[in-house]
Amino acid sequence: MPVTISKDLPARKVLESENIFVMDEGRAKSQDIRPLHIAILNLMPTKIVTETQLLRLLSNTPLQLEITLVQMKTHVSKHTPASYLKQFYRTFDEIKNENFDGLIVTGAPVEHLAFENVDYWDELCELFDWSRSHVHSNLMICWGAQAGLYYYYGIPKRELQEKLSGVYAHKILKPKHELVRGFDEVFWAPHSRYTTVSVDDVKRHEKLELVSASDLAGAFLIVSRSRRNVFVTGHVEYDANTLKLEYERDLKKGLSPKIPEHYFPENDPARRPQSIWRSSAHLLFSNWLNYFVYQQTPYQLSEIKEERE
């Protein structure tokens, strides 16, 4: 949240030079406050686990949020009971006449398929197009980020020679960017995927900014210059043991997975992994909610302007 001070206070220039968000008294008094309406399109098979992880990060701010959980009508979930989905989730058809401050699109285990061959691709494209005029800011994660980059900006996903799995160091490329305010210059984040997007493809696109990247994991935080779309190629929402459970699952399937990199102490799967990305995960979600949603969305959601970059 911003620090509200007099616009003439000498500390203001120092704080702003350090990328601290300050607000003058006049702007603070003119702000209208209401709950933020956030939709979560949960494409992960383990929906209960994923929604818990995301809600944990969303809840760690002073902002009041109203959450709508969304599923794809054109996909039948095999891992979540239909009764659970009926009770707690809504379909895109049921929300498409509503407006939201923010939309989160999760990852999905469909990387081996071309986008057009995913059974809910047409419905997802309809949702992406709808979000231009009904959502102020999108936050897309892992496969959801790759799908969004492909749909909105024509950037393809690229196959990796082997699965990228582990916790990797990332550098801040745009230190003054709102999305990384308060971040350490180097921070850690988990990745778990078979595909990637090219750093060069992102850098060449005039409507995108590459805010953070990893020498080993590639592009990480990508933001549209309009600030309406935020792409996170990793899984900052993961719990400390999520990669461990994925590794053990793949072992049981006989896939001979590599041990996730920089994850188990001394690279020993028998030892308990620790989360070294939790603080940056909370900060990332807090920055998105504050600078891309709360500070920017019109008070009347019906006044959201159509985004046509």
How would you characterize the overall build of this protein?
This protein has 309 residues and is of the alpha/beta class. It has a single domain, classed as Class I glutamine amidotransferase (GATase) domain (Rossmann fold). 31% of the residues lie in helices and 26% in strands. The protein contains ten helices and twelve strands. The strands form two sheets. It has a ten-stranded mixed β-sheet. The mean pLDDT is 90.
Offer a few descriptive terms:
309 residues; alpha/beta
C-alpha geometry: globular
Helix tally? 10
Low-confidence stretches: none
By CATH, the architecture is named 3-Layer(aba) Sandwich
The proportion of residues in beta strands is 25-35%
Largest sheet: 10 strands, mixed
What are the SSEs and their pairings?
Layout: E1 3-5, H1 11-17, E2 22-24, H2 25-30, E3 36-41, H3 47-58, E4 65-71, H4 82-88, E5 89-91, H5 92-95, E6 100-105, H6 121-134, E7 135-141, H7 143-153, E8 158-172, E9 186-196, H8 199-204, E10 208-214, E11 218-224, E12 229-232, H9 242-252, H10 278-294
Parallel strand pairs: 1-2, 3-4, 3-6, 4-5, 6-7, 7-12
Antiparallel strand pairs: 8-9, 8-10, 10-11, 11-12
